[in-house]
Amino acid sequence: MQSTDVANWLQANPKFFEEYADLVAEIFIPHPHGGRAIPIAERQILTLREKNKLIENKLGELLQFGEENDQIGDKVHKLSLGLLQARDLAGVLGTLHYHLQENFHIPHLAVRLWGGEADSTLSEFAPVGEAVLSLAQSLATPYCGPYVTDEVMGWLGESAPRLKSFAQVALKTEGVPFGILVLASEDPQRFYPEMGTLYLARIGELASSALGRCLD
């Protein structure tokens, strides 16, 4: 008889524990964390405690995630208010840079824009290559990972050699890209391929709306 046969029989005959309660109380099994033997009832209590601990840890993780999401949501809300209050293109760009660097603690970022009426005094309207235009067109969702083109790397100035992770977000109006937002960090895990991009996408939509309004 296999141990699984015994387990299946006991599950199918729960009255066994009522009829042989004294026998069950006399059965001792090894302690899970030591060499001594303990009654089955005590082992069951230990199992329940371990399960409760796992549940508590999982609940703690969920609460932590909830708090982190609340904090990010609050930052996105403040960014939204700032972009609504900005009255011109320079104001929108300044607001975007300020909130991303000061509130989201993203140390390096770059914006490039094309289409509409260009302002030659702003670096954001510097010409971009075909690779960037194609990338913006293909980005249905934000890209996160360790790679950007040499052209994009050049936008990030002297800090570029130290940067290890990047996020690239297409700026679009009615599905047509008119720019790209690039975020970068020295931390290789700040923007990694498997991370969620919901808030990045929302930031891109907010920036697209505010910038598109100024470019019309």
Describe this structure in words.
By secondary structure, the chain is of the alpha+beta class. It folds into 2 domains: 1-85, no CATH class; 86-215, GAF domain (Beta-Lactamase), CATH 3.30.450.40. The chain is 52% helix and 16% strand. It is built from 8 helices and 6 strands, in the order αααββααβαβαββα. The protein has helices spanning 3-12, 16-19, 21-26, 40-85, 89-103, 130-138, 150-154, 198-215, and strands at residues 28-30, 37-39, 108-113, 143-145, 165-173, 176-185. A 4-stranded antiparallel sheet has the order 3-6-5-4, with helices on both faces. Strand 1 (28-30) and strand 2 (37-39) form a beta hairpin. Helix 4 runs antiparallel to helix 5, helix 4 (40-85) runs parallel beside helix 8 (198-215) and helix 5 (89-103) packs antiparallel against helix 8. It is elongated. It starts with a helix and ends with a helix. 22% of the residues are buried. The mean pLDDT is 86.
